[in-house]
Amino acid sequence: MSVSFHLCQPGRGASCGACCGLYNFRDHSRATLTERLGAQTDTFAPLPREPEAYGAAARALKEARTPPLFPAVRVCPLLGFLDAERTRVGCLGHPKVTGGVDLRDCGVYRADICETFTCPSFTWLSDGQARLVQAACADWYLYGLVITDVEFVRGCLRLLEWERAGPVDPEALLARPESLEAMRRLLALKETAPGRGTHAAVFGRFTPDTEGEPISRTLDYAALGARAAPEDEVVLCLGYAPTSLEELTRARELVRTHVRAVAATLPS
Ligand code: SF4
Ligand code: SF4
Fold first, then answer.
1. What's the distance, CA 259 to chain centroid?
2. Ranges of each domain in the chain
3. Between vectors from CA 127 to CA 125 and to CA 131, what angle results, nearest 5°?
4. pLDDT digits (tens, 9 = 90+) for 150-165
């Protein structure tokens, strides 16, 4: 592992439930997911901490839910808010949450799989990159979107290095409040980038294949009448599926502007 802390529940406002299927819906907006997590939390809260009760509630939630964007990727109804303020997402069947009994077998995986799973970000992000995401995206919705998208994080930092014509140490961004704030605005494009449309079956860089598995998307440069540009990796990770050169140009410009804003906060 290259990351020195546990990415799932690192604290300081950050928490993640991406591998439990949190974002696996065509509408994965903050408002919709907040509502879903709230409903799941409210469903399990009054129940006796027993497999029968949790299993029945999990089945009912599963039957009633919206179809997932990637049918091959499971969505667990045991995901919810862990705190009264509803700022931390996590597993409602975990022994630390139930007060001792392990009810994760009532979810969509076996409890031992939930216990031991680590996503690729544990290996592929550097410690500095992961700490930068934790500090810049200190809320459950944005943190989960960004910490699981290694290509997006690396792509943003690579653009910053091109802009600066030299290496950029994540520590330098962490050390300067104004850099961290500009970095947050760049990474928060995952949530705020306008004009992405809601019609496409797209999650960041991915779209479902015929089996319902996520496959990586590319830009059709010939159809767009465009050449590849350094911003395109990030444009794809943001979920843009441009159908015209004008749309692609606007998306690239948005990324470039935000990268330049981060670069401007660093000493020359
Ligand atoms: S997607 Fe990764 S960081 Fe998020 S909860 Fe799963 S293992 Fe943890
Ligand atoms: S039971 Fe497993 S898959 Fe379901 S929310 Fe808990 S950790 Fe995630």
1. 20
2. 18-121, 149-263
3. 100
4. 999 999 999 999 999 9
- Cα(107) to ligand 2 centroid in Å equals 6
Q: Is 19 in the pocket of ligand 1 (CB under 6 A)?
A: yes
Q: 200 in ligand 1 pocket by Cβ < 6 Å?
A: no
Q: Which ligand is nearest to the CA of 119?
A: 1
**Residue pLDDT, tens place only, 218-233:** 999 999 999 999 999 9
Count CB neighbours of 127 within 10 A. 14
Q: Where are the alpha helices (DSSP H) in the chain?
A: 30-44, 51-64, 95-98, 111-116, 121-124, 127-136, 140-147, 150-164, 170-175, 177-187, 189-192, 221-224, 232-237, 245-263
Ligand 2 centroid to residue 185 C-alpha, Å: 30
Q: Is 138 in the pocket of ligand 1 (CB under 6 A)?
A: no
What is the reported pTM? 0.96
